[in-house]
Amino acid sequence: MTITALDRRHVWHPFTQAQTAPDPIPITSAKGIRLYAEDGREFLDLISSWWVNLHGHAHPTIAAAIAKQAQTLEQVIFAGFTHQPAAQLAAELVQRLPDGLTRVFFSDDGSTAVEVALKMALQYWRNHGEGQRTRFLAFEGGYHGDTVGAMSAGKGCGFFDTYGSLLFEVGLLPFPATWDGDDDVGGKEQAALVRLDDYLVDHGNTIAAVILEPLIQGSAGMRMCRPAFLQALAAKLQAASILLIFDEVMTGFGRTGAMFASLNAQVTPDIICLSKGLTAGFLPMSVTVAKESIYAAFLGENFDRALVHGHSFTANPLGCAAALASLQVFADEQTLAKLPQIESWHRQGLAQLATHPQVQHVRVMGTIAAFDVVTEDAGYTSQIGPQLKAFFHERGLLLRPLGNVVYLLPPYCVTQEELAHAYAVIREALDVLVN
């Protein structure tokens, strides 16, 4: 029986309507930016396989580190035990994060990293005797994962209406999305801050934290905001003694041009969530990193002050080894120095698309580029998305539009020629499918 037949018989795929979706493409191997299919086709992976791959597929340094670790310690319970890869990784992350983020809590994926952050914020205030602080604020369009707490924080993205009865109340603020040439960004930022002020007047002493994706909202369509907005937001929250949570599950590890979006924005949150690129796409792992003052609030003689959360594979040694090796690759290959060049290549490609009559809201930040396709049914469910994806697949590109939003988020090993080819195919798609 073929891989496809076995898959069709037994597998339930994510974000897929199985009745109408085409057969999934069996991939047998990958190297660098290329995926190799069972039928001999090659695909340029221009979305880093759901935003997780940093340095290219099958990077030998990371593969070797995992293999070496597997021969010594593959797993150990992390309650009451520790191991060198976890302790070293925590120290390495703290060294690279904004000053003040010092305590690393390991978990499994981006959703659980957010769940941990929400629990930390809620219990932080309870442990301080302010149990009335149970409210959270988030942003319209924000997406934070698919577990219940993460869905609640991300209810503004519109993906979770089916599960509304499970979700807790979260206040929503407008997100001041901007793009190249936007002449109303200041007004949008001011409107969001005024909405925050109003919410603080009504509910200020009941708010535990504000959570957002800094600089770029990913699943909402790569919507971008300015560092100045995050700085103004952080100042207001600090003055009101409200915690700030940055969901850097996607933006972490170089995507915005700096190692972390918080460094790019020059804002230090109270809690930060990291996943996706943490292990460079090799293994599932996440961390939630908090300030020392957050950690200190959980110390005491009674267990009820402790953070009661954990996972079977918390701080898995193989995942830690992969993450450490990825950080070593950053140093060995001077990866951060490559990122401005990738941004420049994006800008060159987008400049050729910007004049197309069906292209609007061109935007780029670091290694992420995006634009909107002008269509009557704009949004995540736009019919142009599946049409474009099929067109790209036929021409050997792994691009997965977010509705009518086309974006590129490649591994850092991408070449100028590969990106130029991708933009040429995108131009062809616009000419064929949209006009």
Order of helices and strands: HEEEHHHEHEHEHEEEHEHEEHHHEEHEEH
Distance between the termini: 42 Å
CATH architecture of the largest domain: 3-Layer(aba) Sandwich
* Class based on secondary structure composition and strand pairing: alpha/beta
Q: Kindly report the average pLDDT value.
A: 96
Q: Quick one: overall form? A: globular
Portion of residues within helices: 25-40%
CATH topology of the largest domain: Aspartate Aminotransferase, domain 2
| Biggest β-sheet: strands ordered side by side in the sheet | 4-12-11-10-7-5-6
Estimated share of beta-strand residues: 15-25%
Number of strands: 16
**Radius of gyration over C-alpha positions, nearest whole angstrom:** 22 Å
Q: In DSSP terms, counting alpha (H) and pi (I) runs of 4 or more, how many helices? A: 14
Any idea how many domains? 2
- Low-confidence stretches are none
Question: Which CATH class of the largest domain applies here?
Answer: Alpha Beta
